[in-house]
Amino acid sequence: MFFSFFKTVYFRIRPKIPIPKLEKKRWLYLPRLFSGREKTIFYGLIIVALISGTALSLRTYLRFTVIKPAFGGTYREGLLKGPRFINPIYAASNDTDRDITELVFSGLVRYSPEGNPEPDLAETFEISEGGKNYTIRLRENLLWHDGESIDADDVLFTIKTIQNPEFKSPWRQNWQGVTVEKLDRRTVRFSLKQPYAPFIESLSIGIIPEHLWARISPQSAALTELNLKPVGSGPYRFDSFTRLEDGSVTSYTLSAFKYAPHGRPHIKKIIFSFYPTETETLAAYRKNEIDGVSAISAKSVPQVEKTDIILLPLRIPRVIGIFLNSSQQSAFAEKKVRTALTLAIDAGDIIQKILGGAAEPIASPIPPANSSFNENIPLAPYDIERAKMLLAEAGWKDSDKDGILDKTELKNKKRTVTPLKIEITTSDFPELSETAAAIKEMWRAVGVDTEIKIMNSPDLEISAIRPRAYQALLFGEIFGHDPDPFAFWHTSQIKDPGLNIALYSNRKVDSLLEEARRTADNNTRKDLYQEFQKIVAEDAASIFLFSPISFYGVRNSISGITIGRIALPHERFSHIEEWYIKTKRGLK
């Protein structure tokens, strides 16, 4: 049929060949030469050809292109507490300050999702053979958010500002004994008095601009507007914020920085909103006021699981335990008592009922999220009968049958009866205060009278931790990427400003920790840390409970998020330039 049709067309127009010489009006006259049936076939073939061509073009387009991130969109996240110091030399204890500082400022190095240091402002970094010198070469053409150039002088200024006691930076102790010198406009060398393998992590602190901060006196540093309207070099620059009449910040907006060290991020704007409680933050998510929630407790997970949220577990290297002060409660000096108190706690029950299962039970001073964790240390079993037996062997009996153990002793020829009474001091963080209440009931079951003292975080630090004014401190210790536990367990750190809140002293442990700091080989250091954990566990130096898991919630419209091994929650933003909302197609 098709042959017949084309044959008819050919013979009817043959006198007008060659076809290209036909005038436009004659081409328009062409359809009149066909019968109705021939017109139908003709137009049908044209339609088929157009559809086939379009399909072929689309198939080719899809075959040789892929979906890629595009610039645009706004990401909105809810945080607890408003910001105070968007400044790397001060951002330490406030998670909100850390989160925003991570986006606004860049350090010399940052960490990969695998937990390895990689260049940030640095182009390269080299460590000398002896481990005492670190040489940093900056990238070319680095810019601050205000368009000024970044060079070695900014690095020197930042470190010397932190080292200056008048600025009262909480990071000062990390930089004591470190000498920094400028080799040329782009090269800086850090020199240590002694090899210190974990020093590389200190180089991740954000660098501040000398041309702005050199004009600020130490006395004015905490009050300057630069703490809320910062100028950094990170992937996002300060845009604006809103305040209430009382001065509290209600929202904070950042815009993508085109000349960031790793290129302009894909998401155009980030807006943070601040809420007093987790409940209000989750309510804002359900109302579509925000796209992400910085921290979701395990108890709240069921509330959001059926929404369009993606829950990303954050396994922070953190240890929650009870640290015992024998100078405040003499019963703690005896290992049998410490062991009995450990056996009387059902950590698994606490994890399920209070933490919703979002924690790992531990028996070690180094958490499971750390590569040096000693997995061969067995968990203490929950054993009430053995706990009672050990307390009896230590001389604690219920002599007056009131359910509370006591010990009878002769002091200055006088008979004294001392009840076994322990005060647990902890923070007002709900999961810790609830854990303290559960432990109180568990210890009561073996005859220990327990009181709970709950304090807010600032008071806890100032009035209890720093002066070591507690009997049993229910608290958490957070490690960095490097598992260095020196500050928590070395004898030299027992007094403030050291962090040895267990008040633990062991010469062998001191030697292991000192050697680990001097050792550059990671495998050797791991062996040293594993031996350290074994000794501390055998000594029952503290009661290790669990390492909690928190959750970061993000709406499923946000793509490109990779969160691997992080040391602190703010590091979820360390590769923010890979996140995206908008997409486009591009060549493979």
Task: Explain the overall architecture.
By secondary structure, this protein is an alpha+beta fold. It has three domains: 2-66, no CATH class; 74-315 and 550-582, D-Maltodextrin-Binding Protein, domain 2 (3-Layer(aba) Sandwich); 318-548, Dipeptide-binding Protein, domain 3. Helices cover 29% and strands 24% of the residues. The chain has 16 helices and 23 strands. The protein has helices spanning 2-13, 24-29, 36-64, 95-104, 152-163, 210-213, 278-286, 301-304, 335-343, 347-353, 384-393, 430-444, 457-465, 486-489, 507-518, 522-538, and strands at 65-70, 74-80, 109-111, 117-119, 122-127, 133-138, 178-184, 187-192, 236-243, 249-256, 269-275, 292-296, 309-314, 318-324, 359-361, 406-411, 414-419, 421-427, 449-455, 472-478, 543-548, 550-555, 582-587. Strands 9-10-11-2-12-22-13 form a seven-stranded mixed sheet, with helices on both faces. The two termini are 44 Å apart. The mean pLDDT is 91.
Helix and strand composition category:
alpha+beta
Strand order of the largest sheet: 9-10-11-2-12-22-13
Tell me the overall shape: globular
Helix content percent band = 25-40%
- Highest CATH level, the class of the largest domain: Alpha Beta
Our count of helices gives: 16
Instruction: Supply the CATH architecture of the largest domain.
Output: 3-Layer(aba) Sandwich
Summarize the helices and strands and which ones pair or pack.
Layout: H1 2-13, H2 24-29, H3 36-64, E1 65-70, E2 74-80, H4 95-104, E3 109-111, E4 117-119, E5 122-127, E6 133-138, H5 152-163, E7 178-184, E8 187-192, H6 210-213, E9 236-243, E10 249-256, E11 269-275, H7 278-286, E12 292-296, H8 301-304, E13 309-314, E14 318-324, H9 335-343, H10 347-353, E15 359-361, H11 384-393, E16 406-411, E17 414-419, E18 421-427, H12 430-444, E19 449-455, H13 457-465, E20 472-478, H14 486-489, H15 507-518, H16 522-538, E21 543-548, E22 550-555, E23 582-587
Parallel strand pairs: 2-11, 2-12, 18-19, 18-20
Antiparallel strand pairs: 1-23, 3-4, 5-6, 6-8, 7-8, 9-10, 10-11, 12-22, 13-22, 14-20, 14-21, 15-21, 16-17
Helix pairs in contact: 9-11, 15-16
